[in-house]
Amino acid sequence: MTLIKTSIGRRSFIKSTALAGGGMMLGFSWLASCKPSASELLTMPKEWFKINGYLKIGENGIVTIMSPNPEIGQNVKTSMPMIVAEELDIDWKNVMVEQAPLDTSIFKRQIAGGSQSIRQSWQSLRMAGATARHMLKEAAAKLWNVPVSEIDTEAGVLFHKKSGKSAGYGSMASAAAILEVPKEVKLKNVEDFTIIGTSRNNVDGRKIVTGQPLFGLDYRQEGMLIAMIVHPPAFGLKLKSYDETGIKSMPGIKDVFKIHVYNDDYIKEGLDTITFNDLVVIVGNTTWEVMNAKKVLKIDWEPITTTKETKSMWGNTIEVTTPAGLENSDLHSERMKSTAISSAKVVRKDGDPASAFKKAAHIIERHYNAPFLAHNTLEPMNFYANVTAENAELVGPVQTPEFMEKSVSARLGLPLEKVDIKMTRMGGGFGRRLYGHFLMEAALISQKMKSPIKLIYTREDDMTSGIYRPAYQATYRAALDENKNLIAFHVNTGGIMDSPLSANRFPAGAVKNYLAEEWEVPSNITIGAFRAPGSNFIAGAEQAFLDELAEEMGKDPIEMRLELLEKAKNKPVGEKNDYDPDRYSGVLKLIKEKSDWGNSAPGIHRGIAAYFCHNTYVAHVLDIVMVDKNPVIKKVTAAVDCGIVVNPIAATNLAEGGIIDGIGHSMYSAITLKDGVSQQNNFNTYRLIRHKEAPKEIEVHFVKNNIDPTGLGEPLNPPIVGALANSLYKATGKRYYSQPFMGEQKIIG
Amino acid sequence: MANFSVNINGQIHSLDIDPTTPVLWILRDHLNLVGTKYGCGIASCGACTIHLDDKAMRACVLPISAIGNKQITTIEGLSEAGNHPVQQAWLEHDVPQCGYCQAGQIMTAAALLKDNPKPNEDDIDAAMNGNICRCGTYIRIKAAIKTAAEKM
Ligand code: FES
Ligand code: FES
Fold first, then answer.
1. Which one-letter DSSP state was computed for residue A187?
2. Is A223 helix (H, G, I), strand (E, B) or coil?
3. N or C: which end of chain A has fewer CB within 10 A?
4. Chain A residues within an 8 Å CB radius of B126
């Protein structure tokens, strides 16, 4: 028993519901009780009028805008509402932001993934603001008895020039709320934007710096118990039995039991990935008590047998085989090498690459590889669940609430509308929280306990339970004629259970004879999407290879790429080329100018790389200086074309993050396996980039255009790996092929 | 179980608790002060940084029995109105991405500046190196620390 006497009142999460949620918005309990961002500075209205699912307006003119998508640090909670506010034509300082509930009848694609939040919601967010503005105008027109076309708005005020009448949005909100939604509205011209394209600070900034409860791990409810799981210590093992003797009588421990997460006859879909389906669960009063019980619980494990499973992958039914055995990284490497030779499938072939290689005057061939990586969101996996016979309430960090709602509903046998998932701010995502098995686990634990529970993964649970960035290998070959012209290009790549190939990306389309092949190696190590899936490896390999190729051809690496892009533009080879040569060249030209390429100061070693993925074009120049024989990253310059930049300060932040992430992982990080056991289980063995190792300076330049915006969460990180490898070569005279680069040769102090 | 009386953010709390319980879980589970985060539990990430008197400490490996008469300050108690110069600088530079590491970063930075009001680049790196930011906000953190140092 824990006795607490405190001289301050404990903050209650449940009691403060009425603060902001009241009125027309329902079911916000905790999420709304965290006061909306600006509320410290704003006077709360007495009444809210809901204009549409995206926004409500108070009688005093304050507007609450819902941010539909999960927030994982990509800052959509600020930038998505900015887009609504722009079209609504309201002063940003009168805006409060709330995390929207999961509601697919109102919102489109409530997913954080693929750098698509802004891109795919751009139109609907603008429509939401524009229709509301139109309804306010109609309300004013009716009241003033003038044509709606004569009404103008500016920063939350409606006015009629001819009569001199004007009114704030707040005073028209009640009348507007009951009007029909217009069938058509006019959107603003890009040139007239006053919010989009201006820097607005993170709406949760103040809460973050003062330690307010925002994250899933911070969520609690009265009577909530803490649950932890114990999963097998190695891939290739499963639960045999456990001995709970003495555990249940440990202080604070309520129960120990087994859960079978997905039913055996359930056809899993792409995001239902789970590594260990049978788990031992310990439930207790407090985290420390459960952690202590976890340390002493005795469990027997047994080897898995090879299993075949039918899965539904994006509409296609496939058979997946999970092999038995305790795997090793060395074995993975060997298997990848042999599979690359024995089982590569041709994905794209242009011209006659075989003959071109045969008659080549020079051939260069290089091999690249990268290890498994753990996502390591700083907030480990966790979820709150309160499941009763009638409904399931789930609260926490997940990138795919929409998808998980369906899986949970199927597993619990509850209708969809009885499964309520609420999104908290997430302490990072990076793809890990696309796979919401932990949410399912929480639901089953709560169901068994008949009590609200919060499932918490320890860091060790989180890091050793798979769903890793796949381990990859690639071989690049290029054929040059006697004049050192590029006549053929060949990529052969694959990985553990995944291929990183995007066969139609540059330099496909720029080379007459082109061959792209891929393969996969089966394994029982589970894998998943990791920030810029596939690209996070293949971009670095390709861009390092192009650097060697340019050197071999005796060309400047930027000029060489520009020449190839010119070819792809004027005389494209093939039809499926998946990039716009002009925009690609655009970022190369911009980086050339901004980095003052070719004129670097003595002692600066520079590498260049460029890539296009997730609809955004990026080029980087990375500068290294040698300090005591160690390379130190002095500066990174980036050129980015993501169309319209919604919120420059946040876009730059995300760009910096992507760059540091890419440098960090390629330089230092790896999950290695020995007898099925991950050799890294916490931050003392798994190395993440730290303050000292971050570039001293990052400069981000955006291409200015009026193209609809695309995402920034992922595209910045793939090419930086190439820029780093190329710059390391300049600094050390040695090419870097194996990630983590630090593993090849100890290079930084 | 043992009785402890600890001063946290200027308030005295009496607890009857397992003496090995780390301060992190006392803050989070027992006192509902959840600003202090769990990231690793082994003093390797800095997410749980608090002040013990004026020194930055990792709360995840600090048992309650080791506190004695020392005063604990958490992110919630760093300033009255969230206006510590470090917090203000963090807002000015719009430092956070996901935000999860930031309470720990701020607590380490505040302790650094208390100890060394005019740190140079190396001092900042040395003091901050134990605080991981998985989102990679390192450059902004450094800039914010410099801004805070100027204003303090
Ligand atoms: S949680 Fe204490 S240092 Fe990581
Ligand atoms: S802001 Fe996400 S871990 Fe630092």
1. P
2. coil
3. N
4. 692
